[in-house]
Design a protein that fits this description.
Elements: E1 12-17, H1 23-39, E2 46-51, H2 54-63, H3 66-82, E3 87-90, H4 96-102, H5 114-124, E4 128-132, H6 135-138, H7 142-151, E5 154-156, H8 160-172, H9 181-198, E6 202-205, E7 223-226, H10 227-241
Parallel strand pairs: 1-2, 1-3, 4-5, 4-6, 6-7
Helix pairs in contact: 1-10, 3-4, 5-7, 5-10
Length: 243
């Protein structure tokens, strides 16, 4: 006799992780919290995780080997698709530079990390927004350009010396599970300088680890846009409304 137990049927989110090992479980938690908020009870999201080796990612970044990183990411996306992922997301703004190429020719939907951030900025009516991230992200490339195009806002980067310090804190501290009060205060100082000197109305936490160090309550003077949180919540919303 067939079981009469009712189960919740939902699509599966494929998470391309490992960039870094700190943020991948954070994404999993954020996605499942969003799913629980919607479904209630014991329900969480259906997920698959393909974790890249962060050591390989660092090596590709330091060598500027974007083709190598693209091939590496694509091989992990292959695994997610083979396992039945219905939507692909990546957990890194820096690695976002290769995601479009890695997704090329695939039928599985892909949610760019920049899309929910740009939409949130537009919804809040912000006109000038600062961005923190790795130097690759802060130097006016794909992430900044896509967010600007989606939001219609001007996306501004810190000064070169500030970029160096923000980048160092990410790789030497946050990716090593070090969350220092001195670094939280330094990020706050840079953000407030950009508000006072350059008219920033908001701050994009454009490296997904940063939200583990600083949040809205640390910067009530600005609208804080955490890419990891916005991305995870948008992935759940997309599956609930149909990809």
């Amino acid at each position: 006799m067939a079981s009469s137990t009712e189960v919740l049927r939902q699509p599966t989110i494929g998470i391309l992780g490992g960039t870094s090992h700190i943020v991948t479980p954070a994404y999993y938690q954020l996605i499942n919290q969003a799913a629980r908020d919607h479904h209630g009870g014991d329900h969480i999201a259906e997920t698959l995780v393909a974790g890249m080796n962060y050591g390989n990612i660092r090596a590709y970044l330091e060598a500027g080997d974007w083709e190598g990183m693209t091939r590496y990411a694509a091989s992990k996306i292959d695994a997610l698709e083979a396992a039945g992922a219905d939507l692909i997301i990546g957990t890194s703004n820096t690695a976002h530079l290769v995601m479009a190429d890695a997704m090329q020719g695939r039928s599985t939907p892909f949610l760019p990390i920049t899309k929910p951030v740009g939409e949130a900025i537009a919804a809040q009516g912000l006109k000038k927004v600062a961005i923190f991230g790795t130097q690759t992200t802060m130097q006016g490339g794909k992430v900044m350009n896509e967010i600007a195009e989606i939001s219609g806002a001007e996306i501004i980067a810190p000064r070169p010396d500030e970029q160096t310090e923000i980048h160092r804190i990410i790789f030497e501290e946050l990716c090593e599970e070090k969350f220092l009060e001195s670094s939280r205060q330094r990020y706050r100082e840079i953000a407030l300088r950009m508000k006072e000197d350059e008219g920033a109305q908001g701050l994009i936490l454009g490296c997904t680890e940063i939200f583990l160090l600083i949040e809205q309550s640390d910067l009530p003077e600005l609208s804080v846009l955490a890419t990891a949180k916005l991305h995870a919540e948008a992935a759940v919303d997309l599956l609930l409304t149909g990809v």
